[in-house]
Amino acid sequence: MKRILITGALGQIGSELTLKLRDIYGADNVIATDIKKNDSEAAQSGPFEVVDVTDLKRMGEVAQKYQVDTIMHLAALLSATAEAKPVFAWNLNMGGLLNALETAKELKAQFFTPSSIGAFGPTTPKDQTPQDTIMRPTTMYGVNKVAGELLADYYYHKYGVDTRGLRFPGLISYVALPGGGTTDYAVEIYYEALKNGRYTCYIDKGTYMDMMYMPDALNAIVDLMEADPSKLIHRNSFNVTAMSFDPEEIAASIKKHIPGFKLMYDVDPVRQQIAESWPNSIDATAAKEEWGFTFEYDLDKMTKDMIEKLKPKFQMKISS
Ligand code: AKB
């Protein structure tokens, strides 16, 4: 990777990935794009272009202008929003992906796009879900993710585009908030714990989902993109995970730092149903074997770091 175009660069993953890639490859070699500009560091610390991913012509012009050799396509709607607006989600998630793959094909660029645990469905084995298994999701997001994995494979086999992808679990970060996901509770809970000492969770106790701390997710993207292609059997997309917990377990981890923290529930039936259709835990053996996937943060290490990083934002004194 030398000259990278990122779509959705101001979103939850993009805001941090853009900065990490600028550190590694040089600020001028990472072209951040999003549908709107803002005053975030990702938008201000290097080249930025407004790109609507449903506009193939514009995406192609920007990619040509900077002569990129890598496209990282992050722009997409997450699961809960996609469920609320399924037709819009299909058009944005699939139309945007097709345009990004076409652009990669034209420029002979390497390609990355995230898939998700949302690609699995209620008939998938629930525990230690294997890399290769039943994939019959019942959400629009999941349908998009499975179709996206197949489309990326298609561009690899048919056109030789070097496509690579990761099935991300819920991603947790203190930098940018997610928006419209089912796993968002696992980010909100830290903000509310620090702000109010309590959190009302829309996911029910006993509902397990895989999660990963953002620094591990960013390392996984870089490592996969740098991996020796001859070792990659799966490409689109690898299961990756660092932990699996339910709301009670994350609350217990937070209580080690904020003993008075209170967790309450007001379950949202839509997001609960999505969560129940996803695995309890997935197996990342293929990622470990094919390109050496590792992670650093488990639940308690992540909680400690989240609280330390967020504490100054809320100017609260927490006994740690
Ligand atoms: C979501 O909840 O929609 C995402 C995901 C797991 O893909 N965080």
Describe the protein.
By secondary structure, the chain is of the alpha/beta class. It folds into 2 domains: 4-169 and 212-239, NAD(P)-binding Rossmann-like Domain (Rossmann fold), CATH 3.40.50; 173-211 and 242-281 and 297-314, UDP-galactose 4-epimerase, domain 1 (Alpha-Beta Complex), CATH 3.90.25. The protein contains 12 helices and 12 strands. It has helices at 12-25, 41-44, 56-66, 79-84, 86-107, 140-159, 185-196, 214-226, 247-255, 269-277, 285-291, 299-314, and strands at residues 4-7, 30-34, 48-50, 70-73, 110-116, 163-168, 170-172, 198-201, 209-213, 238-239, 243-245, 262-265. The strands form 3 sheets. The chain has a 7-stranded parallel sheet, sandwiched between helices. It has a 3-stranded mixed sheet with strand order 7-9-11. A two-stranded parallel ribbon has the order 8-12. Helix 1 (12-25) links the parallel strand 1 (4-7) and strand 2 (30-34). The longest helix is centred in the N-terminal third of the chain and has 22 residues, at 86-107. It is globular. The model has no long low-confidence stretch (mean pLDDT 96).
Q: Which spans have pLDDT < 50 for at least 5 consecutive residues?
A: none
| Domain tally | 2
Bound molecules: 2-amino-3-ketobutyric acid
Radius of gyration: 19 Å
Overall mean pLDDT score? 96
What overall geometry do the principal axes of the alpha carbons give? globular
Share of β-strand residues: 15-25%
Query: Tally the helices: what do you get?
Result: 12
CATH architecture of the largest domain: 3-Layer(aba) Sandwich
Number of strands: 12
Which CATH top level class of the largest domain fits? Answer: Alpha Beta
User: Roughly how much helix do the residues carry, as a percent range?
Assistant: 40-55%
Order of strands across the biggest sheet?
A: 3-2-1-4-5-6-10
Assembly type of the chains comes to single chain
CATH topology-level name of the largest domain: Rossmann fold
Alpha-beta content class: alpha/beta
Amino-to-carboxy terminus distance: 41 Å
Topology order in helix (H) and strand (E) letters: EHEHEHEHHEHEEHEEHEEHEHHH
For CATH, the homologous superfamily of the largest domain is named as: NAD(P)-binding Rossmann-like Domain
Largest sheet: 7 strands, parallel
